[in-house]
Structure formats: C-alpha cells, structure tokens
Design brief:
- This protein has 431 residues and is α/β, with parallel strands linked by helices.
- The chain is built from 16 helices and 15 strands.
- It has 2 domains: 42-290, Aspartate Aminotransferase, domain 2 (3-Layer(aba) Sandwich), CATH 3.40.640.10; 294-430, Aspartate Aminotransferase, domain 1 (Alpha-Beta Complex).
- A 7-stranded mixed beta sheet has the order 4-10-9-8-7-5-6, sandwiched between helices. Strands 11-12-15-14 form a 4-stranded antiparallel beta sheet.
- The longest helix has 23 residues, at 293-315.
- The structure holds D-serine (DSN).
- Residues 32, 95, 123, 172 line the site of D-serine (DSN).
Length: 431
C-alpha cells in the first residue's frame, strides 16, 4: 500500500494496513465515524501540510501563500453555498477547538454558558465540568426528561432563570431532531447567543433532508468528518460580513453585528496558530462532494437506514432510548438484558461490529461502564448498504447482546458480518 513508508517505517505502515483491514472487514457503527473518498484522502495527504499561513486569505503573516489562499477561499465559498450562510471560518483544527472559539468569540471567561449535560448526550465542550468550557466559564447544564426527550417548556424556564450569555444545542447522543425556531425564541428572549453544534447532523443538513439552524442560531459549529464525510476538521458559520478580522472592534461596532469578525479573531490569533492547509483542502473537496445530487441521496439513505435499524432492534425486543430515532443514531438501553455497555461493546467488537458504550438518561451505572450502546448508520450507508441489510444487522446485534458469551452465537455472527462486508467492499483500490 505504501511505496515509501513501508521501507522507512514498516511498523507504522503495518499498523495502518492492519487498520485498513479492520475497517474493511468490520461494520463501523460508531455514529460519528465515516469513510472519506479517496479524493479527500489525497488532498489530506498532500504537500500542503508543509506551509505556514497564519492569518486569513489576503492577510497572511507569512509569504508564499498565493495557492493556500486559493484553497482556503474555495473551502469558504463552497461551505457558504452549501449551508446558505454569509461567513465561514474553515480553520478550526477540530470540533473542540471550534466550540472553544465560538464561545470565546462572544463570552469572556467567567460568563454563563449553558449546554446539555454529557451524561444526557451533550458534548464535553458545551460546559462539562472537567472541560475548559466548564472550568473557565460559569456553566449550567440542562438534561432531558426521563423519556430521553428534551422538554422545551422546562428548558424555557431554566433559560429564563439562568439567563446564559451562550446557549448550546447539539449533542453526541441525542436521537431526535431539534426545534431550532423555538430554541432561538427562548434564547434570544434573554439576549443570549444561540450556538448550534451540528457536528453529527451536518451531512443531512447540507443535503437539506433535515431542518437547518441557519436563520435561527447566531453561530453554527460543525466538524467535517461525521455525516459530512470529509477529513477530520471543523468550521464555524454565521451570518453577516467580517470587517477586519485582525483588528479590534471600534466603540461603534456591537458584537452581535460583528460575529464574523469576532469568530475569525477568536480562531486566530485568539486560540490557534497556523491553519492546517492540507486539512482545509480536504474539507474543500468534501464540500464539493456534498454539493452533488448523489450526496442528497446518501443523506436520505442514512435516515432510512437508521429507521430500519431501529425498527429491527425493537422488533427483536430491544429497548431504545426515546423508542426510536429521527436522525442517524440510536442508543440501546441494555438495562433489561442485565448487561453493561462495556461488555456489550466488547461482545459486538468480537464479531466485527464497532459501536461505543454510552450513558442513557438518568443512568445508574458509571460513565466508563454505562447502561447503553450508541450506534448509527453514516459509515454503513457509505458502503452502499440499504434497509434490508439494516434489518439483518439489527438481528445480529440483538443475538449478540442477548448471548454475549455464547461462543457459537459469536462465531455465527462473525461469519455473517464477514459475508456482509464482502458484499459491500470498501477501499479495494488501497489493497
Ligand atoms: N467524539 C464525538 C462523537 O463520537 O460523537 C463527538 O465529538
């Protein structure tokens, strides 16, 4: 697979080759993972990694950036068109730095931020106590109701009482869609900034198969490597036009009218140094792919597959948090199987199905061995799998979770997984 690497560093080459085989011969069901195209991989592995370019197109602190400017401008323009926003910053190294920059753009350390608790499906960077967002800011966390659903009336009461400067919606483990218009009304009612973190749903939003927060949220953050199917990376989007990103606002310029400038300044020089230009190029390629009609079909199929998988798991008698899904992911509640998430994850891994253990709402177990399993369909859909395969996978998962130590069940399941992966080959060009 590698002409140079296998000679210079056979150990690393071997690990990459082993990981390729693992991806090819298993079912990748972690809902935040996906398989990029070879075009994205080529841009990511390019010589653009060699260049420093602190600043923004046309305003760099280093010489020799004429081609880097072209790349970054293409990425910006493609993202603006795809998501229908006025301004995009494509430089955040990944989702966590993007969220850090989004908060830093509008709130000073010590000010109040609000986000969904990690234990209820929220993200670390939305104010969790050990993360910078919970340590450096005054964080108030919200949670779902006992049924796993957001209770918008309760949320409204909490926002009115707490009056956060920044409110995050978006999660890593919430299987339903968000009511962005209602959230905007609630948060703007207390003059807060509404940040929508669409990392998980970005592909479906880009393809316009689910509601977009554009026009409701003040700031939108996203990673680029989940359902959007690009390289690891992130973007921050908003409306309005930047003045000069590297100069402070004048006394007449209000923050709310200058979000593009504040965001750009928060990313660089606020938090980051030189952008990762190889990553920016790969993001640009992924954005071009996401603008194609085929991508809309892909995004629709992710949702159809998730519905089919959820129905299959429930038909087999498994309990799902919120009893189903509206997006690309679902969480199996293992409580009635008398099985922990850690052992469930391990049993599935043994048969070639990769998922992750996850807390369920009001979980009585510890986060490192919680009561749930989180799984989703973006990566399987990239392999071309459709609803009938999801039904079969749901049956396999159910059998394994019901008999996680039964050797013959596991062997049979491993065979079925192998057969499926042979029918839907992945990255054959790389072998
Ligand atoms: N780690 C990501 C996920 O798995 O959802 C979120 O950042």
């Amino acid at each position: 697979m590698f002409k140079h690497l296998s000679i210079f560093d056979p150990e690393i080459a071997k690990s990459i080759e082993q990981e390729l085989t693992r991806q090819q011969q298993g079912l990748e069901m972690i809902p935040s993972e996906n398989f990029t195209s070879l075009a994205v991989l080529e841009a990511l592995g390019s010589i653009l990694t060699n260049k420093y370019s602190e600043g923004y197109p046309g305003k760099r602190y280093y010489g020799g950036n004429q081609y880097i400017d072209q790349v970054e401008e293409l990425a910006q323009e493609r993202a603006k068109k795809l998501f229908g926003v006025d301004h995009v910053n494509v430089q955040p190294y990944s989702g966590s730095p993007a969220n850090q920059a989004a908060i830093f753009a509008v709130a000073r350390p010590g000010e109040k931020i609000m986000g969904m608790s990690l234990l209820f499906g929220g993200h670390l960077t939305h104010g969790w106590k050990v993360n910078f967002s919970g340590v450096c800011y005054n964080s108030v966390q919200y949670q779902t109701g006992p049924n796993g659903l957001l209770d918008y009336d309760e949320l409204e009461k909490l926002v009115k009482t707490e009056k956060p400067k920044v409110f995050f919606c978006g999660a890593t483990a919430y299987p339903r869609l968000y009511d962005y218009p209602r959230l905007a009304k609630i948060i703007h009612g207390v003059d807060g900034y509404f940040i929508a973190d669409i990392a998980h749903e970005a592909g479906m939003i880009a393809a316009k198969v689910i509601l977009s927060p554009v026009g409701y949220a003040d700031i939108i953050t996203t990673t680029t490597h989940k359902s959007l199917r690009g390289p690891r990376g992130a973007m921050i989007m908003c409306n309005g036009l930047p003045s000069h990103p590297l100069k402070p606002l004048t006394a007449e310029e209000t923050p709310r009218d200058n979000l593009p400038t504040l965001i750009d300044r928060a990313v660089f020089p606020g938090l980051q140094g030189g952008p990762h230009n190889h990553q920016t190029a790969a993001i640009a390629v992924a954005l071009a792919e996401a603008a194609k009609p085929e991508f809309k079909i892909y995004a629709e199929q992710i949702l159809k597959n998730a519905k089919a998988l959820a129905a299959s798991l429930m038909n087999e008698g498994l309990k799902l948090v919120t009893d189903g899904t509206d997006n690309h992911l679902m969480i199996i509640d293992l409580t009635s199987l008398n099985l922990g998430g850690k052992d469930g994850e391990l049993a599935l891994e043994q048969v070639g199905i990769t998922v992750n253990k996850n807390t369920i709402p009001f979980d009585h177990r510890k986060p490192f061995d919680p009561s749930g399993i989180r799984l989703g369909t973006p990566a399987l859909t990239s392999r071309g799998m459709k609803e009938e395969v999801m039904v079969e996978i749901g049956q396999i998962i159910s059998l394994v979770l019901k008999s996680p130590t039964n050797k013959s069940t596991l062997e049979k399941a491993r065979e079925q997984v192998k057969n499926l992966t042979k029918q839907y080959p992945l990255y054959s060009e790389l072998n």
